[in-house]
Design a protein that fits this description.
Strand content: 5-15%
Largest sheet: 3 strands, antiparallel
Shape: globular
Order of helices and strands: EEEEHEHHHHHHHHH
Number of strands: 5
Radius of gyration: 20 Å
Length: about 240
């Protein structure tokens, strides 16, 4: 939550600027690092999945990836009050006594955050058939990208033709169906290169590529660099 000033942050290897008052949701699998602050005052909440109600966890997972969301001063004040109360309960000497209340307040934060994102989406998103289909495809892609690479199979999952699915996805995202699949897989490859010490060959196999050479060629095509160069550059 950005209370004052500006924070520049890199999320999944893309730099974004968060200007107060604003909030941004980051999924645990997203690679992120702070770049710079400008007169910034902010707070960060890290919530373990087991402390979230399934409903709110599902809502948050559906937000990824999420951009920064501007807040009104009134909404910011509500967030500050809820966050302050949760922090006070967390730091109480007898934590177990307040644990159930703390969990409910944490879930209130999650519910408020996801509701704001959904409200903003309803205002700004053109809910055409193309967008509905593209969102359904994205859900399937996030579930299956490691094992399913063929566009036709995603069309089968959604019970539509591959040409129509490609039209919907291209209209909604500006990229073809194949490019969306490749981008999603290579994003995960970048995350694994950054987060883990697995070899490039191990990562290729985990992402469904038995042909190690093909995986490297595809990584270069999508990202513009070789896997090990990418790892060394971003870890350095």
């Amino acid at each position: 939550m950005q209370e004052n000033g500006i924070t520049n942050i890199e999320i999944d290897f893309q730099i974004c600027s968060i200007q107060a008052p604003a909030i941004i949701y980051l999924h645990p699998s997203q690679v992120h690092r702070l770049i710079a602050f400008e007169k910034a005052e902010l707070s960060t909440w890290i919530i373990a999945e087991e402390n979230l109600h399934p409903k709110y966890l599902r809502m948050l997972n559906e937000l990824m990836p999420a951009s920064a969301l501007a807040l009104s001063n009134e909404t910011l004040a509500i967030f500050l009050q809820v966050a302050s109360l949760s922090h006070n309960l967390y730091t109480k000497p007898d934590e177990n006594l307040y644990r159930s209340t703390l969990i409910e307040i944490i879930n209130s934060l999650a519910a408020l955050t996801s509701s704001l994102y959904q409200a903003q989406s309803s205002l700004t998103e053109n809910r055409t058939r193309f967008n509905i289909v593209a969102r359904a495809f994205r859900k399937e892609l996030d579930l299956r990208y490691k094992t399913v690479k063929r566009p036709a199979l995603y069309a089968d999952f959604l019970n539509i033709s591959v040409s129509y699915l490609n039209e919907c996805v291209k209209t909604a995202t500006g990229q073809s169906l194949s490019n969306n699949i490749q981008q999603r897989v290579m994003l995960e490859a970048k995350r694994l290169l950054y987060h883990s010490d697995k070899s490039v060959k191990e990562i290729a196999i985990e992402l469904g590529y038995d042909d190690y050479s093909y995986f490297i060629r595809l990584f270069v095509k999508v990202t513009g660099s070789k896997p090990l160069y990418f790892r060394n550059k971003n870890r350095g």
